[in-house]
Amino acid sequence: MVKYYCCAGMLKSSWDQVCVAFWQRYPNPYSNHVLTEDIIFREVTPTNCLVSRRLLTKTNRAPRWMEPYLPKQMSSSAYIIEDSIVDPQKRTMTTLTWNISHARLMSVEERCKYYINPENGSCTEIKREAWISTTIYGLSRAVQEFGLRRFKNSVTKTMKGFEYVLAKMHGETPSRTLTETATERARETALAAKEKAKDLASQAQKKQYV
Questions:
Q1: What SS3 state is found at 21?
Q2: What digits encode the pLDDT tens for the residues 152-182?
Q3: Other CB atoms closer than 10 Å to residue 87's CB: what's the count?
Q4: DSSP 3-state assignment of 4?
Q5: Which phi and psi angles does 174 have, rounded to 5°?
Q6: Are residues 75 and 166 in the same domain?
Q7: Which domain, by its residues, includes 195?
Q8: N-term to C-term CA, the chain
Q9: Cβ proximity of 5 and 129 under 8 Å
Q10: Which of 94, 100, 108, 197 is the most buried (most CB within 10 A)?
């Protein structure tokens, strides 16, 4: 069973600017989890489309319940493949992204299409689709719901990262404020503390049965 999700977004920049920003979006304050990006291959087709494949390394920490099933070095990082096609004739950019790490436990495939807003040529529309699946019998719904929550959170950061990079390209001051930075760090600290508390509680419970 595969869980499907679709959403749309808009960037207040031209399609050309968004395409340039796409290749310049790392690093940005919203992508601290992206460690590396490597181009595997790139070519221009006879129809002048730019076809690329990249390998991304992210610190996408696996949930606690998944860690026992993973090698230690894999529980805190993930490898992602990103294919993209830029079509200057049709003025579209299409990307397909999927994880090659933890794929047997949870697979997330994302397809995005960037195109000119039909009502405002200075804006770019983004249609985003995702397919989330798992091979874990009996826990498929829980895994898919977890994957969907993480995906939605990732989409929010991706859009903010795009807006940040585009603002810098336009010579504007990025909208990210010190208050926003402090709030996000506080949220991350609270989440880490919550996970630590769960671990301690789990360990205490195990000792009771020893």
A1: helix
A2: 999 999 999 999 999 999 888 666 544 455 5
A3: 16
A4: strand
A5: -55, 145
A6: yes
A7: 177-209
A8: 39
A9: yes
A10: 108
